[in-house]
Amino acid sequence: MGVTGDRFRHEALGVVFQVREDRLSVLLWQRALSPFAGAWALPGGQLLAAERLGTSASRHLAAKVDIPEIAHLEQLETRSDPVRDPRERVLATAYLALVTVGAQPRLPADTAWHPVDALPACAFDHQSIIGSARERLRAKLSYTNIGFALAPETFTIAQLRDLYAAALGHEVSATNLQRILTRREVIEPTSGQSRPTSAGGRPAALYRFVSRSLVVTNPFAAFRPRD
Amino acid sequence: MGVTGDRFRHEALGVVFQVREDRLSVLLWQRALSPFAGAWALPGGQLLAAERLGTSASRHLAAKVDIPEIAHLEQLETRSDPVRDPRERVLATAYLALVTVGAQPRLPADTAWHPVDALPACAFDHQSIIGSARERLRAKLSYTNIGFALAPETFTIAQLRDLYAAALGHEVSATNLQRILTRREVIEPTSGQSRPTSAGGRPAALYRFVSRSLVVTNPFAAFRPRD
DNA sequence: CGGGTTTTCAACTGTTGGTAGATAACTACT
DNA sequence: AGTAGTTATCTACCAACAGTTGAAAACCCG
Among B156, B66, B220, which Cα is nearest to A220's? Predict the structure, then answer.
C-alpha cells in the first residue's frame, strides 16, 4: 500500500425517474459529439477532488433539473468495465433519483424525458444501468415507502394506483393498494377531499405519506419468531 | 467532458463471511504499519489499470483465502468520503463474499476470523462497511436462496437452522425453515441420511440446495394481480 | 328525482408463516 | 427385550396477509 498505484477518472451518473402521463420516464440528454454522437446519455460527470459521490451526483443533476425537485437519491452500483468508455477508462457510480409526479422542471435544449419502455439508442452502458435502476425501484416499491418520492404531497388512491401501475409495469388494484399501505402505516388519510371532476362521481379522499424519508416497512423477514 | 479531470486511487474490499462455531465471522487482517497500526482491516487493495472491480476483489482475496472456497461474491457499495484514508483520497468498492461452513482455508499469519458481534478495533471505515454487509446478508437470506453459499453440499435441517440463526442473529424454528424453503423449492431432500451421533436420536434426512447460484424466490412483490 | 360515474368499504377466499404437540427413529442402559 | 432419553419429522391449528368481488356511498347532470 505505497504511494504508487494507478489512478482513474470517476464519474457519477443519475438515473432520474418521473412518472409522466402514466408512464415511467427517465431523463436523458442527447450527445452532440463523438463518441456516441446522437445517442442519448444519463446526466452526470466527473468526480472532483474533494467531493463525495452523492454530492457529485447532485451537482451534475443540478445542471439538468432543479435539485429541490429530487425527492430521493440513493446509490445504485458502480460500473468498472475498462472499456465502457472507448476514450479512456472511467469508473461510473450510478445513483437512483426520483422526481415527484407533476413537477415540470425546466430542461436544457438537449435534454428530454423518455418512457423507459421506449428508450432511444443509449450511449455507453447506460441502457443496462437504467435496467438496474428499474429493478431497484420496482423492488423497493413493494417493501418500502419509496412511493413518497414519486407522489405529490396529497393524492387520491386512484392517482396513487396509476402511479404504482406505471412504475411497476403492471395493473394494480386500488382496493389492495389502499388496504396494504394503510395497514403498514405508509399512507394516512387527510381531512381533505378532491374536488369532483367534471365527469361526476364521488369525490375522493386525499391521502398523504406518513413519512417522506425512506422507511423499510414490509415484514419480509421470514424465520423470525413472533417474540 | 474533456481529457482533463481529477484521478483517484480506487480499491476493492472484501467482506468475507463464514459461520464458524455457530457465529457469523468476518475475515480481517491486522495492520502493522501506520495509519491504524494494530487495528484490523478488511482484505483488499488497489484496482489495476485493466482490471474490473469484481476481478480485483477476487485477486486480493486470493492472497488471504483460497478462491474456490468463495461460493458467492457480489458488489455491495462504494465509499467515497474524501478523508476515509488519512494519507490520500482512495475510493473503495466493497464486495460481499461468502465462504461455505466447514471450509478451513489456510490463512496468513496476520489474518484471522472475528465474530461480527465481537469485532476488534477496525481501521478506516471498515466497521461500518461490515455493518452494511451484515444487513445485505440478512435481507437476502429472507428472500433469496443465498444460504447455498454458507451451507455445505448436503446438510440436515438442524444444521441449516443453526447456520441461519447465526447469520440472522436470532432464533430460527426448524419446522418453519424446512417448510418455507421446501415450498419455495429452494432446498430439496436427498436420499441420504445423517449417521446418528453418539448422543443418539433419530437420524436426520440430508437436504441440498436446488440451485447453487443466486435466485430471488420470495414473492415479496405486493400489488400484483394473480393473473 | 333517476341514471351515469367514481370512490369506498365489507365480505369471502387462498396463501403464507408462526406455534405446539404428537409421532418416528435412533442410542444407551438396565 | 424393555424402557428412558434424545433428536428429527410431521400434522394440525391459527393469525396475518393479500387478491377478488360486489354492493353501498357520494357526487354530476339532465
Answer: B220
Share of chain B above pLDDT 90, in %: 82
- CATH classification of B144-209 is 1.10.10.10, yes or no? yes
Min distance B124 CA to chain A CA atoms (Å): 14
- A115 and chain B in contact, CB less than 8 A: no
Q: What is the pLDDT of residues A153-192, one digit of tens each?
A: 999 999 999 999 999 999 999 999 999 999 999 999 998 8
Contact residues for A4 (Cβ-Cβ < 8 A; gap 6+): none
CA of B123 to C1' of D13 (A): 52
Pairwise CA distance, residues B18 & A219, whole Å: 26
Give the list of residues 6+ apart from residue B201 with CB closer than 8 angstroms, or none.
none
pLDDT digits (tens, 9 = 90+) for B109-128: 999 999 999 999 999 999 99
Q: Which CATH superfamily is domain B9-133 in?
A: Nucleoside Triphosphate Pyrophosphohydrolase (3.90.79.10)
User: Cβ separation of A176 and B223 shorter than 8 Å?
Assistant: yes
What is the number of residues in chain A?
227
Residue spans of the domains in chain B: they are 9-133, 144-209
pLDDT of residue A197: 66
User: Within the 71-90 window of chain B, which residues sit less than 8 Å (CB to CB) from chain A?
Assistant: 75, 77-78, 80-82, 87-89
Which residues have CB under 7 A from strand D? A 173, 175-176, 179-180, 183-184, 193, 196, 198, 200-203, 218-219; B 156-158, 174-175, 178-179, 197, 199-205, 222-227
- Cβ atoms of B124 and B91 closer than 8 Å: no
CATH number of A9-142: 3.90.79.10
Q: B104 touching A, CB under 8 A?
A: no
DSSP assigned state of B196: P
A144-209 matches A9-142 in CATH topology: no
